[in-house]
Amino acid sequence: MGQTPMRAAQAPALASLRRQFFDNGEVPDAGLPAPVLRSWQRCQRLGLENTERGRPSNTTRGDLMVARERNAALLSHAGGVMEHLYEQIRASGSMVLLADASGLILHGIGDPAFVDRASRVALQPGASWSECQRGTNAIGATLIERAPVEVFGSEHYLDCNGVLTCSAAPILDCRGELLGALDISGDHRHHQPHTLGLARMGVRLVERRMFESEHARHAVFAFHPRPEGVGGLQEGLLAVDADGEIVAADRQARTLLGVAPGRGLGLGGFGNLFRSSFGTVIGRAARDPGALMALELRAGASVYARVRVSLAWHIGLQAAQAGGGARAARAPDPSRSARNRVTLETLATGDAGLQFALDRCAKVVARNIPILIQGESGSGKELLARACHNSGPRADGPFVAVNCAAIPENLIESELFGYVGGAFTGARKEGAIGRIQQAHGGTLFLDEIGDMPLAMQARLLRVLQERCVQPVGANAPVAVDIALLCATHRVLSDSVKAGRFREDLYYRVNGLTAQLPPLRERTDLHPIVRRLLDGSRHHPEPTRISVAAETMAILEAYAWPGNIRQLQNVLEVALALLDEDEDCILPSHLSEDVLQVGEGAPLARRVVRAPVATQAEALARGRGRRPKDIDDATIRAALERFDGNLSAAARHLGVARNTLYRRMGCDF
Predict the structure, then answer these.
(1) Which residues of 38-48 are buried (b: 16+ CB within 10 A; e: fewer)?
(2) CA–CA distance, 292 with 53 (Å, rounded to integer)
(3) pLDDT tens, 628-649?
(4) 302 forms bridges with which residues in the sheet?
(5) Can you tell me the distance from the alpha carbon of 432 to that of 434, in angstroms, rounded to the nearest whole number?
(6) Of 114, 73, 109, 67, which Cα lies nearest the Cα of 92?
(7) How far apart are CA 73 and CA 80, in angstroms?
(8) Which of 103, 230, 254, 549 is the right S-S partner for 259, CB 3.0 to 4.6 Å?
């Protein structure tokens, strides 16, 4: 992935512009993007020298902890989006960063080699990238400009930052307040023209998630002038309370309605904006929740809208009707939202290897036995963890997920165990509850536990042994009742041998190992594709979209190194590329890396169907299949394993005992 020709051609011109500005004191008339030139002038007024390495920010570990807690909602909603963006740029020598409104980097995820190089110029969590600290850069400039900004190579004010190319966009709340910035940074030699567009898309997703979360107790109207725009990133969102008052509009809604940013909404009641009454529209939505409605604005134009009403809104409405306007509705637990109502039963799609793992998990979820989920990146480890939680006796309790690889090493202790007030410099005076305590009565899911530092492994082992947690700075432990689920893409037994993972902790977390097969070895690609398409939120009618046979043949031939996560991204892109009158995904709608199945591309999918399998392979292949699809070798393997016990073999294969009798009479 090389530097684009346009950017490569700009390098000599940039050197000339820098000499003109820094050596001769002249302001260039042309050649620099306007936001970059304005930033250079601001930095010059601040007294920054282009030869310095940036001014120290003096940010302590406590300062970062306080900033992360202050921006907890932003971090929560941005985390998944950042991972999604990273999947688009993986192996490109780049990283995705989240900064708060002051420019302090809160979180980052990226290619390990580039992350190491980025740390040499302090491009890492805990560092401030405001203009007054680091000169012209995308994060600092976008926070001041309140608009997307790209800074390439030598466009950075400081010479030392000329090795970077950065693209950032500001994150605003529905009131127009600046929350922070989302940035994609990489090596300037590998600049990609679409990066700024990815950053803007990520910001739109974050803002939409925050809007929907903040207004879970309200009816949310998603609208757009064109019907195909509803459900996409360009839809506007309005929040309406039970009395029909419009209480909030997101940035896109303000743009579509012509409301200037930063001004009060001033739309009043629903009837002030639309000709239809609020009660009529809500009544229709109740009868047909997925209905796409045409609504006429009082200004004369028409829009298409779909109403999203949560359980919390219904509870609030009932409370208002019963209590004369009381609005004390409790927000729904995120672990039981529509996205997470997945169970072990609903995960079954016909693959024998997956069914084997699901059956084993189903037998232990009620017995408080730790489950270790292993599988490649993107194979669905967290989804299986949520299914285990929702299928067990703790389904009504919290599900707390912690990505051990995403938390900086100097913060993981306070993040997991919490701390008391005054435990360290900059700590909140009231302290903070750790993630382990938050999972009390429910399930704690430790994702990428193989990346947990050894010092924290010792503390976690003590928690699992004593069922108590001691916050940082506390004098006494606190009892906790949790079920433990862990996941990793590493082979933990190898990490134990290498001394990177404690052997005693390994045996604590490895009560049952559930191995998820990679997508290239699964036999259920067709139902997976159908489920992913039907569950898309970026198309108004995903259930009517089909996949052409030649397209499915390409999907079957591809190796899917990113597994289900990559397949989902490919399908979302394909849906976005469909024209208004198209309802079938053709090969032309697929991304180029999937189409290039050949030289230089990943190896084709390998669905192993050996004519003579080992006993273990035959047994695994037979579980979860229809009786008529179970071959003779699988039946023989089951009978051999259970010493001819027909009842035990039938239970294991998931068929009736009479079925085995018939098969033996006919075929043996």
Answers:
(1) ebbebbbeeeb
(2) 55
(3) 667 777 887 777 766 676 666 7
(4) 296
(5) 6
(6) 114
(7) 12
(8) 254
